[in-house]
Specification:
The protein is mainly alpha-helical. It is 60% helix and 4% strand. Helix 3 runs antiparallel to helix 4 and helix 11 packs antiparallel against helix 12. Bound molecules: arginine.
Length: 471
């Protein structure tokens, strides 16, 4: 391995015990600054709280504390102005900022790290960072969910075929289908809120692994940083990344929901279904086929689900064999976590914009429901009400459907005498149940597809959102 400058010359913060400098490649291989610099705000916030606490317990003087806090605030400005020189030799965001602080305020800068370690510092930074991102996502879910409720209310009586096995099953209302999506996302948001309880705990004070000999006040730092509580055990505090795994798990699950919705949008915008028109701004064209308008946004969300599933597996695998406490392996937690956050946020944003813009082709949806013998179950239920056992009525309607397939006629297109061939119990009132409106309106209970139930469900969901902010 080639030798470059000595570590002292490289300005390493840990060079004391080393007699040769880090290999150039090893330096780059082990550095995280290129990606962890995105936590600079949380790193500075954490350091300022740490310095405040150290001054309160008498480890720093008030002048030292002020120099540190102000120096860090200036560094934040330098970073935000794009003037900060990030150095790979300084390995990570923590040492880059600390070295710059010492540049600016001299020896006092070197006191900031008293009573802590990068191990508890990095664990604190990631939790602060994830907490901030989760707040944004909570709002994104709300926005998307409200968009779904508005659309569901508008489309409460719009009829479409409901599917099982992707075959026409029974008529449903489009509003009801939209509310199914709403429920999926409501649970995703609940999971996010629940996971935040475990993200928002403070590792700081665990120091390298065993705690510190300084008279630190962890409760105070915890309060300054807005954590819900401290991590109770120092070894656990610096070593576990279960909170990040948990986030990736809920992100993967939520992406899976968005992917299923995407799949439906891709199908429904195809010329074959033509249930939905997606405005041009969510689509792109083909460079060879002039007629194409591709539903890129849903396709990409569906595709990006794979990487989030992958990040969950990466983090589980990263964790599974690590002995306590901190290991450098944990530096590998960041890129998967960052990308899971970016991907979910991007997908939620795209959906938040796209859902309110969906344009249903109501006539096409209705015609599709009419064509597929979607009211066959209604006819069977009708015969049961006339005293025929369900299995027998199923058989009777099966024959009527076979006849319809042969004659290319839907049940509602058959005359009374045609229908009577299958059962003399069929009377004139059968046409009430064979209509699409009759079919959906009859499913009139909580969770059913009747337009009135859709409107009532929207009202309940709105009230829950208004009352608690939590659907
Ligand atoms: N960059 C490191 C990480 O992301 C920070 C902690 C390093 N600690 C250590 N003892 N080398 O995990």
């Amino acid at each position: 391995m080639s030798k470059t400058m000595t570590d002292k010359q490289q300005n390493k913060l840990w060079g004391g015990r080393f007699s040769e400098s880090t290999d150039q490649f090893v330096q780059e291989f082990t550095a995280s600054v290129n990606f962890d610099q995105r936590m600079y705000r949380q790193d500075i916030f954490g350091s300022q709280a740490h310095a405040t606490m150290l001054a309160e317990v008498g480890v720093l003087t008030e002048e030292e504390r002020d120099a540190i806090i102000n120096g860090l605030a200036e560094i934040q400005k330098e970073i935000e102005a794009g003037e900060f020189q990030w150095s790979v030799a300084l390995e990570d965001v923590h040492m880059n900022i600390e070295a710059r602080l010492t540049d600016k305020i001299g020896i006092t800068g070197k006191k900031l790290h008293t009573g802590r370690s990068r191990n508890d510092q990095v664990a604190t930074d990631i939790r602060l960072w994830l907490r901030d991102e989760m707040l944004i996502m909570e709002e994104q879910y709300l926005y998307l969910m409200q968009g779904l409720l508005n659309l569901a209310e508008r489309e409460a009586a719009t009829i479409m075929p409901g599917f099982t096995h992707l075959q026409t099953a029974q008529p449903v209302t489009f509003g009801h289908h939209l509310l199914a999506w709403f429920e999926m996302l409501k649970r995703d948001r609940e999971r996010l809120l629940d996971a935040k309880k475990r993200v928002n705990r403070m590792p700081l004070g665990a120091a390298a692994l065993a705690g510190t000999t300084y008279p630190i006040n962890r409760q105070r730092t915890c309060e300054l940083l807005g954590f819900d509580g401290v991590c109770e055990n120092s070894l656990d505090a610096v070593s576990d990344r279960d909170f990040a795994i948990e986030f990736c798990a809920l992100a993967a699950l939520s992406m899976t929901h968005l992917s299923r919705i995407s799949e439906e949008l891709v199908l429904w915008t195809s010329a074959q279904f033509n249930f939905i028109n997606l405005p041009d701004r969510f689509c792109t064209g083909s460079s060879i086929m002039p007629q194409k308008k591709n539903p890129d946004v849903p396709e990409l969300v569906r595709g990006k689900t794979g990487r989030v599933n992958g990040h969950l597996i990466s983090l589980l695998t990263l964790m599974k064999s690590q002995p306590l406490a901190y290991n450098k392996d944990n530096q590998e937690d960041k890129e998967p976590l960052y990308d899971a956050v970016d991907t979910l946020k991007g997908s939620l944003r795209a959906f938040g914009d796209m859902i309110p813009a969906l344009e249903p082709n109501r006539e096409v949806m209705r015609e599709a429901a009419r064509r597929g013998f979607a009211t066959a179950t209604d006819l069977a239920d009708y015969l049961v009400r006339k005293g025929i056992a369900f299995r027998d009525s199923h058989e009777i309607v099966g024959k009527a459907v076979a006849y319809g397939v042969e004659k290319k006629k839907d049940l509602s297109d058959m005359s009374l005498s045609e229908l009577k061939q299958f059962s003399d119990q069929i009377e004139d009132d059968v046409f009430d149940v064979l209509t699409l409106e009759g079919s959906v309106s009859a499913r009139n209970h909580i969770g059913g597809t009747a337009p009135d139930q859709v409107r009532a469900a929207v009202a309940r969901a709105r009230e829950a959102l208004d009352n608690t902010g939590n659907a």
